[in-house]
Amino acid sequence: MKYSLYCFLLIVSYALSAGCQFKTQSVSVENPIETGVYSMNPLSPDLSNSLQYRWQQKKVIKETVVDRMENLDNWRGRVFIPGEELQFKEGAFIDFNLSDEQVYEGEYSLKLKSPTKTQTPMQTEQRMWDWMFVSREFENGDFSEYTRITAKVYPDCPGHQKIHLFMILQNDNNVPDKYLREGLHTVMLENRQWNDVVFEVPHLSRDQVKSISFVYRQQGNAIDASDTVVFYIDKLAWQRTETEHYEGWNTNNDISFSHSGYNSSASKTAITSALQGETFQVLTHPEGKLVLEKGIEEVNSAIGNFTQLDFSEVKKEGTYKLAYGNVVTRPFPIKDDVWMNTLLKTINLYYCLRCGYEVQGVHGVCHSDWYTISGQDTVILNGGWHDAGDLSQNYASTSETTGTLFRLARKFEDENPELSKRLLEEALWGLKWMHRNRFKDGTKMNWTVIDHWSDGIIGNGDDKLADTGFRVDHNCYAIVAEVEAMKALIKHNPELAKICLEHAKEDWEVNEKEDTPSGVASLARKLWAGCALFEVTKDEKVKQAIVVYADELMRCQQKELKDWRIPLRGFFYTRSHSDEIFVQGHVVSVLSPILGLVQLCKLFPNHERYPEWFSSVKLYAEYLKTMADLTAPYNMIPASVYKLGTNDNNQILQGISLDNEHYLRMFPVWGSSRGNSPVVLSHAISLAQANQLLKEEEIEKVCQAQLEWNVGKNPFNQSLMYGEGYDYSPQFSAHCGDIVGGLPVGIQSNGDNDLPYWQPAVLYNYKELWIHVSNRWLYLLESMYY
């Protein structure tokens, strides 16, 4: 009853708002599931399994306290103008002094006081106001023997639920780097208590240190939070401790394994760089009973030499450890569905990222002064989900999330009705936002940068005015989401399902009228969206269009083996007559060039073009699988082949040489925005979807390897998903804090290099929570298992 009532209320809310002058929303959502694992309360992690806990428990080998804050002789205050370079405002005032109000030890601490915003009104593309620096300066101090910086910080920020500071190390002219990424670190703080803050710096030069800065970024305040904040800082020190492995393919003698565990029927492997004997053991936990003793396997590939532990024959449900030489792993499960926990944690992430909704312990109702103007209407835009570690939103990400949730809700409807309801409720939250942000002629709310809290009152300086416009990619994601909504709701709420279908058809018509796709990205999106629409409409015009799009897309594919040192085929060029290879960048919204081709094969198995579609899918799967072999035994799918002159040659040349002008890179060519998880997950979605046709066991193993890479079976033996597995790092989610289920943008490469790089610092983008990474995680799980 509650389930249907919610759908009914959604339609009423939509209908009432459609023609009014001031469009807003009710922020209360009836929860159809009151108790149990699906209740709507933020999940709490086991912090003893976190990397933060490991940092705090490290044995300190040596410590030098460089400032006890008893005077200000070496301190300087400055105001930074946000941008890509360190530029400071001349003569700007910053309020800092010695204080005895809160002291960790001694007589004084350093007190930094700041307003949360300036008097300058927020502009459309502006993220925040100023950065307030207090810097402890040095005369090119050599601290090379130390591995981290520590301090004590006491925030006094009334009403603020999530609080953070930046720490910035400046060394000679090489730290921070040219992208203003290296040398920066984010620390989350508990309000009104002393916090031990740690900045691990083994990856940074520290031989000519100029300063260590504590930085408050003016990012506004929520409705019920103070507009002035205070931080007390004490006992700044350098420490030397043991450090974590942070660069390269080797495991630093650790055993890397899937922290989430292994499905009973799946392949089961773990990896180490060590060679400590001829056999390894599988032990039960906690009993320590020997289950299997087996010979190791030596694996040699393009990335190095490794020892692989293969225990695929262990299928009995239980909890186990691996032992090899003097190394024993932490426990992991073997059972029928080890990935379900990650699905549930991802749902938790979406709930905690809701915009315009009070999430207990995270934030209150927010951003009711984020709006746009449509005709005579002022449209309030809050709703949906915050997109990343900041609070931005865009229509494509919200649509992608909504569609994935509806698809999963439908698939679990019979098998797990309670989970289906929970998925449906979260999907409806996104759908309501989508419907309210639709405007005439296919226009929608575009990407809006939001990186601040606001007071919720329209008409003052912290408002955010959003742009609207027509974008084909937004409409394609909207079409798929509306179709998935229609299929999920048709039995429960046929009226809302009808509205969703009409929206999908309207967006398709506008796209066809306004856009003629010419490149792989646009062809792939329109083919994918058209297949979704045809499945529910059987519209012959749509069928004719998608068949043409498929023909044009396949003309962009390399079908013959290239005469390279590693012969490859199956990849796509950006256009049919271009020699520039199509690359899936980690910040683009297209998932795969073959998703639509797979759907065409399912829709029209007797079509005369079926053999060509099937062949194209098989060729692309072969390309991805061949690349994955190069990174054995991880089998992380590399980024792409690049041609010199089409991107940054310095980075391209660090890849594997295929001929004089083509190089295969394990990681993308990129600038300041880095992180590999969207790429490997998108590649894996391509393979998993292709394997619904090909049914190859080796493809399934490669897809599984991409999941495992993200939950510990990587060179650093760290789970990337917060609250899952072991040694998960704090994430850059400065406004909402660390959230169980959050996936960051992922492991990057350092500078021009093409090696895995997972430095301990916490910053955008590599450790930033991005919702579209989680979308791809769910899409991959659904493509493989559900």
* Rg, Å, rounded: 27 Å
Shape assignment: globular
Largest sheet: 6 strands, antiparallel
Distance between the termini: 26 Å
Helicity range of the residues?
25-40%
* DSSP summary, beta strand count: 30
Structural class: alpha+beta
Helical stretch count?
A: 15
Q: What would you say this structure looks like, in words?
A:
With 786 residues, the protein is of the alpha+beta class. Helices cover 28% and strands 20% of the residues. Strands 2, 4, 5, 7, 10 and 12 form a 6-stranded antiparallel sheet that branches. Strands 14, 16, 17, 20, 21 and 22 form a 6-stranded mixed sheet that branches. The chain has a 5-stranded antiparallel sheet with strand order 3-6-11-8-9, with no helix packed on it. A hairpin with a 5-residue loop joins strand 16 and strand 17. Helix 4 (395-411) packs antiparallel against helix 5 (417-436), helix 6 (472-489) runs antiparallel to helix 7 and helix 13 (677-694) runs antiparallel to helix 14. It is globular and about 85 Å long. It starts with a helix and ends with a helix.
